[in-house]
Design a protein that fits this description.
Strand content: 25-35%
Radius of gyration: 19 Å
Distance between the termini: 17 Å
Number of strands: 15
CATH architecture of the largest domain: 2-Layer Sandwich
Shape: globular
Helix content: 25-40%
Structural class: alpha+beta
Largest sheet: 11 strands, mixed
């Protein structure tokens, strides 16, 4: 077994709005001239928060790290459904929002807790015959998708000012929070979409311990080494 390089491990990045998860990986690879760089769990361009970036031999642990449970916070806008189930999509339908209390919203949210089958959105990175679905969606092509078994540990709204609800959700990997927001709106009868999303944690790693991307890219190689969680600690 070769000795580990100081850069074999993981880096916790707080992803800003705008870049894709792949853009973040690319920026880190180019800035620090590291051959092998990957990430553990895609965040949509408009989503922010924890992105675990694996470096060097740390990439061997990406499956393990990706399998961890996640916690997200964000906002849902009631009364408007979109083609992508989030604020990036085109408006698909607009309906009046009935008078709702926070208690009524949480009663509806409670129905989503537990094991459930979830249909991935058409605008997603899942591949059909090697082509990401979002590329097909852009051409107006809708394909049949398989439902996936997910588990929602908790889903609660803590603030509601019509038509915006602030929520927190804890779930298994592979859960589309956009789809959850859409389905929640369908249950309420007025439609909804995901307006904002932030990943708070993934397994034992937290966004509070992450460094914003611009600060990561401003580090010297020596400073970067100090931020890397070593391979053996990740593998434990």
């Amino acid at each position: 077994m070769h000795a580990f390089d100081p850069l074999d491990g993981a880096l916790l990045v707080d992803k800003p709005v705008g870049p894709t998860s792949h853009d973040v990986v690319d920026a880190v690879r180019r800035r620090f001239q590291i051959k092998k760089v990957g990430h553990c769990g895609t965040l949509d361009p408009n989503a922010t928060g924890l992105l675990i970036v694996v470096l060097g031999r740390g990439t061997k642990l990406s499956e393990k790290l990706m399998a961890a449970d996640k916690v997200y916070e964000g906002t849902i806008k009631l009364g408007e459904t979109t083609t992508s189930y989030d604020a990036d999509g085109e408006l698909a339908a607009s309906l009046p929002v009935p008078p709702l209390t926070l208690d009524q919203l949480n009663e509806a949210a409670a129905a989503f807790v537990g094991d459930r089958m979830q249909m991935p959105p058409m605008v997603s990175a899942i591949k059909k015959d090697g082509v990401p679905l979002y590329k097909l969606a852009r051409k107006g092509i809708e394909v049949e998708r398989k439902e996936r078994l997910i588990h929602i540990y908790s889903f609660r709204l803590n603030i509601y000012r019509e038509p915006i609800g602030h929520f927190r959700v804890a779930c298994t990997k592979g859960t589309y929070v956009r789809t959850l927001a859409h389905d929640f709106g369908q249950k309420l009868g007025c439609g909804a979409h995901l307006a904002r999303l932030r990943r708070i944690s993934s397994g034992k790693f937290y966004v509070a311990d992450a460094l914003p991307l611009d600060q990561v890219l401003a580090l010297s190689p020596r400073e970067l080494e100090k931020r890397v969680i070593p391979f053996l600690k990740l593998a434990a």
